[in-house]
Design a protein that fits this description.
The protein is an alpha+beta fold. It has helices spanning 3-6, 8-19, 40-47, 51-59, 67-76, 81-90, 108-114, 136-141, 151-157, 161-164, 168-185, 190-202, 204-211, 260-271; strands spanning 121-125, 131-134, 221-227, 231-241, 249-254. Strands 2-1-5-4-3 form a five-stranded antiparallel beta sheet. The protein is elongated and about 70 Å long.
Length: 287
């Protein structure tokens, strides 16, 4: 079979193993190596598959690799998130979060970006809607919920949720439908699975929304907060996927310029101190 027409997966695998220095993966280089980078047999050992299977995959004679096997090969080849997603798509599969991925780690550059929104509430969500990091404005806005940092739990379990979120019914519907979308995208995510298992058996409102089978991304949101310190605050949120951490989303909520909401948000920021990006609920407030 001609690689030029029928085996893009094989070309991709060969190119990436050729780029790896054996020393990078703990192997000895030099000697009688006739090709750059790693040998097929070495990739197979690192990925925990047979040399024959890996050779057939690279030659285009094996066309149904499992997601688990592709995860192992991606790790063996040191692929980043974009390259790993491309590997899955070349094999005809949708990329998934690998077990043990750094899903809950927020990149330092993104942490710095959070602080560049002094007049907006900005925070990073995990696929299960844990608040992984937040700027000072978002911390202040969510302060009525104390140390509870999962937004599904906040909405359904915190006693202040229906007071703070003026449009609670609409927000919970949006959140549950977005969680269902994430559950399909990341079917092995333990936090999502645990949330769904718990809430479908203990929270009737959640179970009803979950069982209606609707899905939708967060995308653009309009939220109305009634904050105990600052009063009513209306924000429009834009949601951005974090490309180097599949599943993470950056949400940025902004008020209408010059509005009462803008003044209230500025007040909260001034009261609650300088910008920071500690995970929600872990920061120390000045006494």
């Amino acid at each position: 079979m001609s690689d030029k027409s029928g085996n893009p997966l094989g070309r991709f695998l060969r190119a990436h193993r050729a780029r790896l220095d054996p020393a990078e993966v703990g192997l000895r280089g030099g000697g009688d190596r006739r090709v750059a980078g790693l040998r097929r047999e070495e990739v197979a050992v690192l990925a925990g598959v047979s040399a024959d299977y890996y050779a057939r995959l690279e030659q285009g004679r094996e066309r149904n690799p499992s997601p688990r096997l592709l995860d192992a090969i991606g790790q063996a080849l040191r692929l980043d998130a974009d390259a790993r997603g491309h590997l899955f798509r070349l094999a005809g599969l949708n990329p998934r979060l690998a077990p043990g991925s750094s899903r809950d780690l927020v990149h330092p550059t993104l942490l710095h970006l959070l602080d560049s929104f002094p007049a907006a509430a900005a925070y990073v969500l995990s696929p299960s809607f844990d608040v992984l990091a937040a700027n000072a404005v978002a911390e202040a806005l969510l302060s009525p919920f104390g140390r509870m940092r999962n937004m599904v739990r906040v909405l359904f379990q915190h006693p202040e949720a229906k007071t703070v979120f003026a449009e609670w019914p609409t927000l919970v519907e949006t959140t549950v439908h977005a969680l269902r979308l994430n559950a399909t995208a990341y079917p092995n995510d333990p936090e999502i699975r645990a949330l769904v298992a718990e809430f479908t058996t203990t929270v009737p409102e959640f179970r009803t929304l979950w069982e209606d089978q609707q899905v939708s991304g967060l995308n653009r949101l309009f939220k109305v907060f009634v904050h105990p310190e600052a009063g009513r605050i209306e924000l429009t949120y834009q949601t951005f996927d974090v490309r180097d951490a599949p599943g993470q989303q950056l949400l940025v909520g902004t008020p209408e310029p010059g509005s009462r909401s803008a003044e209230a948000l500025a007040y909260l920021a001034s009261v609650h101190g300088a910008p920071h990006h500690l995970p929600y609920g872990t920061s120390q407030r000045p006494s």
